[in-house]
Amino acid sequence: MVDTQGTAGLLAQSNQPNQPDQPSQPSQRNPHDTLERYGEPVIELTAARKVYSTGSIEFEALRGVDLEIRQGEYVAIMGPSGSGKSTLMNILGCLDVLTSGHYRLAGHDVDDLDEAELAEIRNKEIGFVFQQFNLLPSLEAWRNVELPLMYARVPGHERRERAERALERVGLGSRLGNKPGELSGGQQQRVAVARALVGEPTMILADEPTGNLDSVSTGDVLALFDELHELGRTIVLITHELEVARRARRIVFVRDGEIQDAPPGHEEGAPLREADPPRPQADASEADASEAEADAPAAGRRQNGAVA
Ligand SMILES: Nc1ncnc2c1ncn2[C@@H]1O[C@H](COP(=O)(O)OP(=O)(O)O)[C@@H](O)[C@H]1O
Ligand SMILES: [Mg+2]
Asked: Model pTM?
């Protein structure tokens, strides 16, 4: 994939602290070195509770969740069906509000915002990717991608240019004029990723993005997420599949509406698979990243085993 001029600007976050203060040992250099130095908190969730009421029946779908995710992190939220992943995604994505507790997104208190304010912050800060792609079937790829820019009232010529660049970035520069029905599932999801990127949001929030894809397309989409992470994007990926989750740099396990300690074998530092090569350790950036995590809520502890 060729990174043509301008696309780095589209994807890289300018305030990402990308340069290590001290060079690491060349022999230990890891392509992700500089990205382990994460920035300011993007997500700060404190004592988060969500109660759904259906008639007289109440169901507590989130039961006191603490979670911090920093700029530049690639985090998977994993858990079985019904554990509260989509509920959490709706909260993180400002699509729903907490029953109690607090949510700060990119430094904004989200708790007291009204619908219009939520929509505005959502459009500015978050790029969504859904399992079902959620593309408009009657619109060509580039027209789907420009939609968030229309809501943001970006002028037409600029929208088209940015939509094209985003599609080029996801490897679909030759498919600008195709409608979703003329594209494979993997290509449709890449259009959706381009749509998520085009507004240069603070974070990409993906709910089961590979749930409808075959293994080849799943590989394509996850490779794209790897690249975005390397370019400094903040990615939160929600999945029930360990093979998908382990591509992230940290896994947060959810069960019955609570953040859980890692299941046996996935403890801090433990590889997720026997065959995993050992991760380069002991360079300065890794140490800093661990330090940065140390004062994060227990819920946000990194699982170092979650390395691709
Ligand atoms: N709108 C709703 N009303 C009532 N219960 C809900 C609602 N949405 C989700 N739930 C319940 O909350 C729990 C968590 O659901 P969800 O967040 O969708 O889990 P997951 O995405 O992990 O499968 C489930 O028991 C589900 O039945
Ligand atoms: Mg779900």
From this structure: 0.76
